[in-house]
Structure formats: structure tokens, C-alpha cells
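Hi support team,

I submitted a single chain yesterday and got back a structure, but I'm not sure I'm reading the C-alpha cell output correctly. Could someone confirm the output below corresponds to the sequence I sent? I've pasted both exactly as they appear in my results page.

Thanks,
R.
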Amino acid sequence: MDNKSLMRGAYIFLSALIVFLGIVYIVMNTLRHNETELDRISNSHLKFQSLLDARSILEMARLCLQKYGVQACDFDEFMLGDSLGGYHLMEDKNGDYWIDIYVERKNLRTSQILRNRIKVLWESKNDQ
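Hi R., thanks for writing in. Yes, this is the structure output for that exact sequence:
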């Protein structure tokens, strides 16, 4: 083999290697972007589900407050499927109630624990 054909083979090999590495780079970035997007979608879905659970917990707290009063319904916890939630009632000086609601659930895809807290003012005139 002469020197010219050896250089030509090396040039073709390097060109193919550069094209191959470019394709690998593009594929890896696409996969990473898809993984990040899936994490975002699953987190937003869990947040939406947690807000629905918080609404249910708020309704349970209101019903307990109306039926049993603030002493019996000071706080409570619930297992809502795969999530944990609860509330804590506090009465302010005006006789209104603050309902502090929390919901936490684990994202099975990322193993993150997502927590949501909501504080709601329930005015005592709404009990009537």
C-alpha cells in the first residue's frame, strides 16, 4: 500500500467517526430532553391530583367543623390511595377558621416526594 491510499483510508475513517459521534450526540440530547419532559409531565400530573385531594380534604374539614366543632376537628390525617394528606384547624380572634391543608405523594418515576400546602380562610358566617 502506498502512502496516499493509507492517508485516504485514515481520512475516511476519521470522517465516519466524526459523523458517528455527531449522531450519538444528537440522540443522547434528544433522549435527555425526553426524560426531562416526562419528569415535568409526571410532576404536573401529581400536582393536579394533589390539588384535587386538597379540595376533598378541605370539604372533609368543613363537614367535621360544622358537625363536631373545632375541638373535635383540630387536625386529621388521611391516606388517599398512594398519597398522605391532612389538615390542621386554627381559630383566629375574629372567630374565623384557618384550615392548613397538606398533601404529599411520591412520584414513582423519579422517587421524589412532592408536597403541597394550602391555607384556606373559612369564615364563621359560612357555617350557617
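A quick pointer for reading it: The mean pLDDT is 86. Let us know if anything else looks off.

Best,
Support desk
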